[in-house]
Amino acid sequence: MNALAGRLILIAGVIVVGAIIAITRRSWAPALGHAFPSIWRIAKITVSEARRRRVIQAVIILVVLLLASMTFFSYLSPQEQARMLISGGLAAIVVFGILLAIFIAAFMIPSEIENRTIYAILSKPVRRFEFVLGKYVGAMIVLGVIVGIMTVVLVGVLVLQDHLVQDLPDSVFNPNLGPVVLAAVLSYFALAVLTALIVLISTVASTTMTVISAFIIWALGSLQETIHDLATNATGAARLLLLVIYNVVPKLENFDIRHEVSNFMSISIASVWQAVLHGILYIIVVLALASVFFSDRQV
Amino acid sequence: MTTEVSQANVAATEVGQAVVLQTDGLTKIYRSLFTPSGVKAVDGLSLAIRDGETYSVVGPNGSGKTTTLKILLGLIFPTSGTATIFGKDISDLSVRERIGFLPEDAYLYDCFNGEELLDFYAGLFGYPKKRRKELTDELLTLVGMQENRKVPFRECSKGMRQRLALAQALVNDPDLLILDEPTSGLDPAGRHQMTRLILEMKRRGKTILLCSHFLAEVEEVCDRVGIMYRGRLVAEGTLRELAGEPTELVVETSGLPEPAAEQIARQEGVLNVEAGVVRMEKASEAQLWSVLQAVHDAGGQIVEVKRPRPTLQDVFVRAIREEAQ
Fold first, then answer.
1. ipTM value of the model?
2. Shortest Cα–Cα distance, B39 to chain A (Å)
3. Which end of chain A has fewer CB atoms at under 10 Å, N or C?
4. Measured between CB atoms, does B76 come within 8 Å of chain A?
5. CA A29 from centre of chain
6. Given A37, A41, A122, which is nearest B120 (Cβ)?
7. What global pTM score does this model have?
């Protein structure tokens, strides 16, 4: 029943988004067509800039070494070892992914304003929304590459471990590769949602405020079920506040299937699609708001 | 002085040349929690800059020059008033296709080299790769950065940075060039080089709006000057118009004995006599002849008689002093 409901929500969502796109396309399609080269140029320079940042390079090397070192947990039983590798590896992808997302996204727009590099860009025929979208797309490309590298290393470690233990008697090592990759992809979606929200905050706040807000959102987004439970039991203003948080802050938990994957449980594909669709809609709304806020910002 | 402003504006349209940039009552007020009534950074600025003209806005720090430029470029928004460039409102994106902007202190991405930077900025105008490469080569040659094209911006000297910043302002071959303190922080050689480049742009027929602290540079390159003080345009015109007719007369002498110098200093029309130089203010021909005769009689020699025209520095100081009073 749940799976059917999920599919129906997904179909309804796709129809609504499709209808909105079809109805409004005449108003935004020409502008977006003209905007695409600028968005792409800004995204590319954002990627090039991130590529040259030593901090990002160092974090990637650190995570790769951390994941690779997990092959040394040979004192566990093969099944426990698989669980440990999958759980630890996916946790590393999520934690370092989020830290890098905050580091990259929170500094992107405020540093352009503080370093005044934005002057030479906005004095060219570049619309404010093109700048915001370009920055977002650039950050997502960087995060995509980073999550991709981490996933490839984790998959490599699991394949290697599978190969090492397959000759052992009673070996039941299950690398669970398909779900592991799916979990990594969902983590990337969670990063996409979080990054969009950080970009929105950075269009109106300073770097420090953006970083603090990003960590708070991450915490709240990962505790949505708890917040919902608290709201159910609370009264008055506290209840209202908790309900606002519950409904506004993205439900990052929905993108987290680490528990199911590391315990070799079945995954509801309908829930996955729901989370993805919800995430995409959330990103569209948040980036639209970011563009509106930034268009009024004095730089 | 304010009469001069309006006269100059009228002249801009009377001569029949197209007005490239026009502002009318442009005002910018910064408000904050601590200043609810706000601070007027620009106060009712009305300007008209003609096609092919090199116009300079000069003024002390905080006079509203950079704020004005930022409004014109759409980086900040005016509180009231209007501004048009090429006859279109400044919010029209097509206006920026014909503008080049050199920001003060050359803020460009510091991890990229000149070649990469110019390729990026040219890309924002939608040029294809081949054209971007041609442009990069042309501009690096123009600003003398061909040999240092691979040097990251953060490793460039101040002069190299300014030249790269000028190059990025020229990627679209703009009709209007807006330069904010182009020679700020440069050594004399760098300043000379930048001034030469600005003159080259002027020779190519570009309309130039220049903000500068260096009055000598302004004198060298500009057709008209606007003096801003506390957000207002307090004087505007060509340097000749602003300076007016010279009123001072200077007689340089040699071998003038001290007692004779003291006697000449007491003559009518003489301001002072210092180190053999006699300065006269609004002197008549008879008063001048009288001084020359006195020098001759005392056994001194006349080296030179001249009527120095006030420099922009003199005009600037006078305008600011009058406005402050």
1. 0.82
2. 16
3. N
4. yes
5. 27
6. A41
7. 0.84
